[in-house]
Known about the structure:
Keywords: Membrane, Transmembrane, Transmembrane helix. By secondary structure, the protein is mainly alpha-helical. It contains six helices and three strands, in the order αβααββααα.
Amino acid sequence: MLVAMTTTDWILDIVLVLIVFRQMREERLTARTVLLPLAIIGWAATTYLHHIPTAGNDLLLAGAFAAAGIVFGVFGGLLTRVRVVDGQVRIRASLGAAALWVASMGFRLGFAVWSSHPSGETHLAHFSAAHHITSAQAWVVALILMAFGEVVVRLGTIVVRGQLQLARARREGSGAPAPQTRPGAYV
Length: 187
């Protein structure tokens, strides 16, 4: 049903799983920190999304997977440590955020591998027929939208948390009443 993974697909998926190790090192939140993941998912969109099927329950499948990605993104963003040091927002993925990332990326990779093998392909075809999912492209769209939801919402959560921490640190520096957390503390 789904096309077998190419070497490029394998490399991309493995890099995305392993990127979590880079995120576990504290870094400054910059435009590059935000734009690089958005560029990667933009590339994935142009590579894998050729059309969005709307027949049967295809949109419901895409919506369910996108919602799952959004949930992963919210929790990934909340589990990422955010603090302000010397007026700059610093971020670091916690062990929980890293585990969540590996689980979600691993699920998508595992699903792609499973669905490209004869037994997985047969099970997926039966499931799709029973649930009115009309094409392999519906599964591709669902998996891509899950990744989009996770990446965009995770980044958005981190950026908002960083801006709130930065505003709090600036208030503390201006003599405004101090909030409960100390400057530089992770939240």
